């Protein structure tokens, strides 16, 4: 297992969720480059440091005993990775304050370290919130692997915080040094809203939500095939995003009891607001979690899912397979998992290994819908 060695610490770091025999690491050259640069600044232990989008906790765990660290991001899985890595390296959990992305920052900060996220709208929202939380001498450094660091990220840093100077690339990583300057307070353009025609819904989407500007085509294909006549079934919308699948299912099934689950705090916030707008005070459970891990075994009748095929920048079906396993555990015998997925991913092969029967309900040139019965 590779060890992250920097002037701050030597750490054995794990990805979360863990993948056995995976070559993927819980840190990259951008983390190491950022920490190496920070060590040259000799910041005092009293430094109030904010870390944004620390994928697996490499930055926060490295700095935990050297500064007063807060870690903020939009991923429940990333925060769980941080907690696990603190424990794994015998670092006091209280050494880092974890802030969900839907909670207010508590500056002013002397140092801000930013891993540029895949969703640049999330970065924009974070920078707008950051404006009132820094001072003229705040050290601000953003980092990323060159292939994942678009020019528009630097443009956002410059627009909302101040002039940006890029480092030389090192091991395919780059740093962006940002000088805070006086800026007028910015009004956030988020959440954004789009309209759905069938059924008629207005859907709010906070900055971290996947496919924020319009309904993704997989979900659009899925909606007309969602189950009806479920009676008082216990139904979960797993990886709910803005909640549209769960909301449409609830409209189709007035007696069903829904829970909407996602690992993105901003998705959960969007889903709750959209539910309240569409269904007023009808009871629902909406929460951020590691999939259905918190649900009781054999407790659900139906799980609906449009599974992701990436974690941060890594593409693959690992998270989807994990969601299928969680669904199987949470479903009652005879319970049903309904999924939509890209045809080329071959989810039916995985599902047939886990479930008693798998039926294809619909398909088009790009997507396929399956119902798997436990």
From TrEMBL:
Predominant location category: cytoplasm
Spell out the PROSITE patterns in the cross-references.
N6_MTASE
The GO annotation for biological process reads: methylation
Name the enzyme's class.
transferase
Gene Ontology MF: a single term: methyltransferase activity
Q: State the InterPro entries in the record.
A: DNA_methylase_N6_adenine_CS (IPR002052), RLMG (IPR017237), RlmG_N (IPR058679), RsmC/RlmG (IPR046977), SAM-dependent_MTases_sf (IPR029063), Small_mtfrase_dom (IPR007848)
Keywords tagged on the record: Cytoplasm, Methyltransferase, rRNA processing, S-adenosyl-L-methionine, Transferase
- State the compartments where it is located: Cytoplasm
Q: What is its EC number?
A: 2.1.1.174
- Annotated ranges, domain RlmG N-terminal: 1-181
Show the CDD domains listed in the entry. Answer: AdoMet_MTases (cd02440)
Task: Identify its protein family.
Answer: Belongs to the methyltransferase superfamily. RlmG family.
* Protein's name in the database: Ribosomal RNA large subunit methyltransferase G
Which species expresses this protein natively?
A: Denitrificimonas halotolerans
Instruction: Cite the source lineage.
Output: Bacteria, Pseudomonadati, Pseudomonadota, Gammaproteobacteria, Pseudomonadales
């Amino acid at each position: 297992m590779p060890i992250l060695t920097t002037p701050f610490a030597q750490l054995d770091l794990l990805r979360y969720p863990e993948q056995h025999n995976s070559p993927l690491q819980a840190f990259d050259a951008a983390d190491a480059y950022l920490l190496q640069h920070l060590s040259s600044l000799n910041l005092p232990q009293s430094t109030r440091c904010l870390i944004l989008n620390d994928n697996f906790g490499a930055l926060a765990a490295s700095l935990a005993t050297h500064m007063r660290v807060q870690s903020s991001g939009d991923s429940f899985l990333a925060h769980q990775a941080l907690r696990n890595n603190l424990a794994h390296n015998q670092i006091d959990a209280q050494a880092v304050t974890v802030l969900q992305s839907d909670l207010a920052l508590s500056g002013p900060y002397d140092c801000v370290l930013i891993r540029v996220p895949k969703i640049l709208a999330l970065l924009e929202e974070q920078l707008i919130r950051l404006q009132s939380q820094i001072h003229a001498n705040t050290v601000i450094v953003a980092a990323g692997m060159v292939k994942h660091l678009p020019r528009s990220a630097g443009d956002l840093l410059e627009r909302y915080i101040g002039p940006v100077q890029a480092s030389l690339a090192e091991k395919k990583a780059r740093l962006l040094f940002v000088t805070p300057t006086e800026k007028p307070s910015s009004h956030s353009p988020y959440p954004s809203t789009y309209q759905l025609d069938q059924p008629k819904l207005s859907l709010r989407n906070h900055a971290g939500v996947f496919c924020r500007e319009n309904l993704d085509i997989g979900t659009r294909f899925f909606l007309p095939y969602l189950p009806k006549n479920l009676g008082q079934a216990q139904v979960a919308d797993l990886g709910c995003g803005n909640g549209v699948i769960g909301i449409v299912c609830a409209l189709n099934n007035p007696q069903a009891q829904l829970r909407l689950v996602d690992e993105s705090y901003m998705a959960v916030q969007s889903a709750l607001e959209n539910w309240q707008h569409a269904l007023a005070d009808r009871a629902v459970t909406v929460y951020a979690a590691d999939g259905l891990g918190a649900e009781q075994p054999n407790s659900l009748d139906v799980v609906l899912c449009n599974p992701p095929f990436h974690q941060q920048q890594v593409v693959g079906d690992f998270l989807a397979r994990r969601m299928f396993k969680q669904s199987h555990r949470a479903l009652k015998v005879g319970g049903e998992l309904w999924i939509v997925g890209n045809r080329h991913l071959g989810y039916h092969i995985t599902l047939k290994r886990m479930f008693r029967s798998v039926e294809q309900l619909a398909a088009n040139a790009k997507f396929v819908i399956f119902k798997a019965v436990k």
